[in-house]
Amino acid sequence: MGEINHFEYGWITPALSYALSVLGSALGLVCAGRIRTATGAGQRAWWGLLAAWALGGTAIWAMHFMAMLGFAVSGTRIRYDVPLTAASTAIAVGAVGIGLAIVGTGRLGATRLLAGGFFTGAGVAAMHYTGMAAMRLDGSLGYDPLRVALSVVIALVAATVALWLAMTVRRGLAIIASALVMGVAVNGMHFTGMSALSVHLHETRGGTSGTEVSGLLVPIVLAVVFGVVGLVYALLAAPSDDDRAGAAYVSARLDGATPPAEAGPAPDPVGLRARSAPEQSAPDPVGLRARSTLAQPGAQFPSRRSTDPRR
C-alpha cells in the first residue's frame, strides 16, 4: 500500500486551486448572465461558450490539475497520459455547455434546472475520474465506493446550484459571494473524490509511460492565463446598456428623427388644445372682468341721459 500525500507542497496548491475555482466561477457567472439578455441566437451561443470555458475549463478542470500538483505517492513517480488529460478537459467544458444550453433557453423551471444540473454534475464527476485514470504510476488504483458515491452527489448538487446561480445572480456582490460558495463546492467534490483513492504498489517496479506533471504545468498555466485574459477582454469589449442607448441616440440623429430623450409634447393636429383653452376660463363672480375692460384706454362710458328711464 502506497502512502498518499494530497498536500506535498503545503497550503500553496489547495489555495491556488480554490483561487482558480473562484475566479472561473465569477467569470462564468458574468458570462452566463449575458445569455438571457442576448438579442440573438449567435450572441447566446457566444456567451454560452465563454461561460462553459470559464466554469468547465477554469473553475473545474484547471482547479483539478492545480490541486493534483500537490498529489504524491511515496515510492513511485506519477506521470499523466496526455490524450486522456485532454479528454477530461473536453468533458468538463462540454458538460457545462450542455447544462447552460438546457437552462439558458426557455423559461427556467425546476425540470430544466434539475436536468441541466444532472448533465453538468455527471460531467464534472466524469472529468474528475477521467483525470485520475490518466495517472500512470507503479501501482494500481482503488476507490472506496461510498466516498465515490458521495463525491458524485456533491458534484450533482454543486452543479445544480451553480446553474441556478448562473441564471439568477446579476449584482456584483452577489456574484462574488456565489463564486466563493461555488469554489468551496468544487474543491469539496475534488478532495472528497481524492479521499476515496488508494494505491497498491507493484512488487516489481518498471518504467511508466506518460508525461510528468511538471511537463504539463506550463501548458496548463498558459491555457489558464490566456483563457482568463480572453474572457476579461470579451466582457470589457461587450456593449453595455449605456452603449446601446448611445448607439440608438446617434442612429436617431443620423436618420433625422428626434431622439426619445428630446421628444416634446404630443402633436395637436386639429387644434383641440387651442379650442379648449378659452372654455376653461376662471369664474368672475363680482364682475371684475367687465370693470377691467371699461378701465382700458379708449373705453366709452354709456351716456347717463340715454340710460335714465325718466328722461
TrEMBL record:
Query: Where is the chain membrane-spanning?
Result: 15-33, 45-72, 84-106, 113-134, 146-166, 173-193, 213-236
| Stored InterPro entries | MHYT_dom
Q: Does the keyword Cytoplasm apply?
A: no
- By its UniProt entry, which PROSITE patterns does this protein fall under? MHYT
Q: Where is the MHYT domain?
A: 9-200
Pfam families listed in its UniProt record: MHYT
Q: What is this protein called?
A: MHYT domain-containing protein
In its UniProt entry, the species of origin is given as Micromonospora robiginosa
